[in-house]
Amino acid sequence: MSRPVNRIAARFTACREQGRTALIPFITAGDPTPDVTVPLMHQLVASGADLIELGVPFSDPIADGPVIQRATERALAQGMSLRGLLELVRAFRIKDDRTPVVLMGYLNPIEVLGYTEFATAAAEAGVDGLLIVDVPPEEGHELVAALQAQHLDLVYLLAPTSDAGRIERIGAIASGFVYYVSVKGVTGSANLDLPAVTERLSLIRSVIDLPVGVGFGIKDAETARQVAGIADAVIVGSAIVSRIEALADRPAEIPTVVGDFVASLRQAIDGAGA
C-alpha cells in the first residue's frame, strides 16, 4: 500500500488553510459487531469527519466511562482483538487512503504483541497514530522508538491538572496533535467549563507547537460549536457510542443514525468558524 507522508499533519494543514476546525469522532472497533465498523468509518468520513479515532477493545478501560466500557464489552464478546482491529483498518484503506486513523487504547495488548511487531503491523495496515492512555512520557521510550521507526504519531493526553513542566515534557515527544481532556474524570463525565478550557489551551499553545484537540464532555452540536471556536479539533466519543448502543440490536441502522449526528456536529463546527 502506498503510504502518504503523515496523513495527520496533512489533514491539520488542510483544515488550517481552509479555516476549519477538525472533527474527530470516536468509535470502538467491533462494536456492536465487526461487520459494522468499516461501513461506519466510511459513513463518518462522508458525514464530515476529518480524522477517525478508533478504540482498541480492552478488558480494563480505566480512562473510559460506562458508555465506552460497555462498547468494549460488546466488541470483546464478538471476538474483537488488536489483530482483528488492524484487519478492519486494512479493509477501510481499500477505499480510503486519505483519512487519518488514530488508535486509542491501552498498553497491555500492544505489549503482548510486542512493540516492534505491533508498530510494523499497524503501519502496514494503514494506521497513522496512537493514543495510549496509560503510557506516561517518562516510561514510553521503547514504544516511542518503535512507533517512530514506522513513522507513526504518538498522541498524548493533557489534563486540567497537567502543570507546565508536564506539558513541556509531553511537547518534547508528542507528534500529530495533543488531546486536551476538558473535564476531570472519565469519558462522558461532567460538563464543559469553556472559560477554563480556553485558559488551559492558551498555556498549552505557549509550550507545544502542535494542533490541540479537545474531548471528554462534548455531548451535542452546541457544545461542539463552542469548542470549535477555541480548539484545532473537536473530539466526540461517548455521545456517538451511546447512539451505537441504542441500536446494538439493529446494526443496519447505525451508519445512518450516527452519520446524521456527526453531520450535525460538522454543521455546528463550521458555523462556529463562520
What does this structure look like?
The chain is an alpha/beta fold and 274 residues long. The protein has one domain: Alpha-Beta Barrel (TIM Barrel). 50% of the residues lie in helices and 14% in strands. A nine-stranded parallel β-sheet has the order 5-4-3-2-1-9-8-7-6. Strand 1, helix 2 and strand 2 form a beta-alpha-beta unit. The longest helix is centred in the C-terminal third of the chain and has 20 residues. It is globular and about 45 Å long.
List its salient traits.
alpha/beta, nine-stranded parallel sheet, 50% helix
Order of helices and strands: HEHEHHEHHEHEEHEHEHEHH
| Overall mean confidence score, pLDDT | 92
Q: Spans of 5+ residues with little confidence (pLDDT < 50)?
A: none
Number of helices: 12
Cα gyration radius (Å): 17 Å
| Number of structural units classed as domains | 1
| Total beta strand runs | 9
Helicity range: 40-55%
Q: Outline, from the CA principal axes?
A: globular
What is the topology?
Elements: H1 7-18, E1 22-28, H2 34-46, E2 52-55, H3 66-77, H4 82-93, E3 101-105, H5 107-113, H6 115-125, E4 129-132, H7 141-149, E5 153-154, E6 156-158, H8 164-173, E7 178-181, H9 194-207, E8 212-215, H10 221-228, E9 233-236, H11 238-246, H12 254-273
Parallel strand pairs: 1-2, 1-9, 2-3, 3-4, 4-5, 6-7, 7-8, 8-9
Summed up:
The chain is of the alpha/beta class. 50% of the residues lie in helices and 14% in strands. Helix 3 (66-77) crosses helix 11 (238-246).
